[in-house]
Amino acid sequence: MTVPTEPDHHRSLPEAHRTIPVWQAGGLARPWWRRMLAFSGPGFLVAVGYMDPGNWGTDLAGGSQFGYALLWVILASNLMAMFLQVLCARLGLVRGQDLAQACRDTYSRPTSIALWLLCEIAIIACDLAELVGAAVALNLLFGIPLVWGVVITGFDVLILLMLVNVGFRWLEAIIIALVTTIGLCFAYSIFLAQPDWAAVAAGSVIPSLPGDGALLISLGILGATVMPHNLYLHSSIVQTRAHGRGPSDLKAAIGHNTFDTIFALGAAFFVNAAILVLAAAVFWKSGIVVDDLRQAHELLKPALGGAAATAFAVALLASGQSSTITGTLAGQIVMEGFLRIRIKPWIRRAITRGIAIVPALMIVSATGGRDTVQLLVVSQVVLSMQLPFAIFPLMMLTSDKARMGAFANGRLVQVIGYSICAVIAALNVYLLWSVIGPMWLGLLAAVMAGFAAWVRFGYRRPTAI
C-alpha cells in the first residue's frame, strides 16, 4: 500500500517532524518496552488539554452543586476522547498529514476556511480558560496581579516552546513532569478529603442530571474534555517519530500510539474525577456552591489545611502552564495546516498566543477575576459547540478507504464515531433551545445544517490512493 505524504516544505511542525528515532535497523526485533517508551509522549501532550483550567471550572461547578452525580459525564466524555484521539493518531500516521492539512486537501477552499475559523474560535475559548487559570494560580501562590499573571503566562510559554528546536523530547519531558505534579497534588488532596466512595462509584455509572443547570455543566464538562483543537494537535505530533512507512511498520506504530493515548487519557480522567470528587467531598457536603477559583482555594484552607490549599494552587499553575504550551502548538498547527502560511515558527506562535492574550486581559480587567468558574464553564460550552465540525471531518477522512487503505474505519467504528457526533450535536441543540428559544434556534439550526451539508457534499473523493 502506498500512502501519500506531505512534501518536505509543507510538513506539520517541520522543525520536529520525524526527529525522534523509535527503533533501530531490525525494527521489531528491538525490545517491546524500548519501542513503547520511544513512542510514549504525544498522548501526554494531548492529555494536558483534558485537565486544563477549563476542566477545573466545570468540575468544581459540577461537584459543588450536584455532588458526585455528574461523574458519569466525565467518564463518558473521557471514553469519547480516547476513541477520537486514537483515530487522530491513525490519521497522522497513515496519511502523513495532520487533520488541518487533510481537510485543506480534501475540501473546497471556502469550506476549509470556514472550518479553520471555527477551530480558531475553539482555540481562543480554550486559551482564554488556560490563561485565566494560570493567572489565578500565580495570584494565589505569589500575589501577582491577574493582569500581569496573564502576560507572564503568555510569554513564558513562548520561551518553553523554544525547546521544540532543541529537541521535542525535552518538551514532552516537561509536560509529563507537569502532569505528574498535578496528579500527585490531587492524590494528596483526595487522601485528606476522605470522600464517600460508594457515592463515587454510583455517580460514575448511573446517568442522571439532578436539577437546573446540570445540563449546562454537563455540556461544559463534555466541551472541556473532548477538545476540538486536540484532534488537530494529536494528528500532527505523532509524526515526530521516525519509523518505516510499510504496512507492518504503520500497524506497529498505530498500536504503540493507541496504548500511549489510552494510558495518558486515563491519567487525565483521574485528575478530572479527582477535582469533582474533591469539590463534592468538601463544598457540596457543606452546602457551598463554588463560583470562583480563588474562593475554592480559600475554602480548602479551613477544610483540609494550608498544605491542601497550596497543592490546589500548584496543580492549577501546572495545569495552566502545560495546557497553554500545547494550545499554542495546536494554534500553529491549525494555522499552518489550513492556510499553509510559511513564516518562522516563533512568529506563528507569537500570533496565536497574542490572539488569546487580548481577550483574556480584557475579561480579567473588566471582572477583576470574579466569577472565574462561570467564565470557564461558558468557555467550555463554546468548545462543545465546535466539536461536531471537527469530528465529522475526522470521521469522513479516517473512513475513506481510498485515502486510508487497509487502515480505514470499519463499520462498527463508523457507527460509534458518527453516534458520538450526533449525541454532541443533539445536546447542543437542546441547550440552545433552553437558552435562546425556538425562533432563534430555528434560524441557527438552518445555518448550521446548511454548513454541515456544505461540508458533506464538498468532500472530494479520490479515485485511487
Key phrases:
76% helix, two-stranded parallel ribbon, 465 residues, mainly alpha, 2 strands
Please describe what this structure looks like.
The chain is mainly alpha-helical and 465 residues long. Helix content is 76%, strand content 1%. The chain is built from 21 helices and two strands. The chain has helices at residues 32-39, 42-47, 53-66, 71-95, 99-106, 109-142, 146-160, 163-166, 168-193, 197-205, 214-225, 228-237, 247-282, 293-304, 306-339, 345-367, 372-386, 388-398, 401-404, 411-436, 438-457, and strands spanning 20-21, 241-242. It is globular.
* Helix-residue proportion: over 70%
Poorly predicted runs? 25-29
Report the radius of gyration as a whole number of Å. Answer: 21 Å
Structural class: mainly alpha
* General form: globular
Main β-sheet: number of strands, strand sense, barrel status? 2 strands, parallel
**pLDDT averaged over residues:** 81
What order do the strands of the largest sheet run in, or round the barrel if closed?
1-2
Topology of this structure?
Elements: E1 20-21, H1 32-39, H2 42-47, H3 53-66, H4 71-95, H5 99-106, H6 109-142, H7 146-160, H8 163-166, H9 168-193, H10 197-205, H11 214-225, H12 228-237, E2 241-242, H13 247-282, H14 293-304, H15 306-339, H16 345-367, H17 372-386, H18 388-398, H19 401-404, H20 411-436, H21 438-457
Parallel strand pairs: 1-2
